[in-house]
Request: fold
Amino acid sequence: MALLVVGFDLDMTLIDSRPGVVATFDALNDELGTAIDGAAIASRLGPPLEREMAAYFPPEEIDPVCDRFRALYAQHGIRGCHALPGAAAAVEHVRTIGATTLVVTAKYEPNAHRCLDHVGISVDHVVGWRHGPQKAETLRDHGAHVYVGDTVPDVEAALAAGARAIAVTSGPVGRAELQAAGAHVVLDSLAEFPEWLASDSLAAD
Reply:
């Protein structure tokens, strides 16, 4: 069998980035004089930023506003993120058994690297600006056997890529919905992930 490849989503799977997202929207609102509800957006992290901004700006303004948000996030958002329970240990366990670690996220890739560096989590590969079917394509390209995420599109991406779909309830989606989407396993947190991986046939192949 090829070298085991384990992929992770980033926001609300490995890191809680909500405080940094809110702080960045506060800075954006101050700069633009807008009233974007950053707390509401942070509560449902997962959809692309462009989709969220479509509720506040005409089409021609969305890309420039999103670019500005990402620039401000590098200043205000990184220090507002922290690792979720069990995240660092889960990634380290994957590395310890000789598997490849991969992060596939909708976040702007340079900011994804900054967040991981800030919380002290090191992975082999980071691919940003991927959502839904794009995540599936990236997982296939990297030969991922497992993908861990916190949303229904994460589960769907894993299934479409032929990978084990492992869901965690640390994000905005509950256990029942993740199970209904087809997750092979739903965990309360990544603290449970090393034990699951050790018990799964993939780790023994």
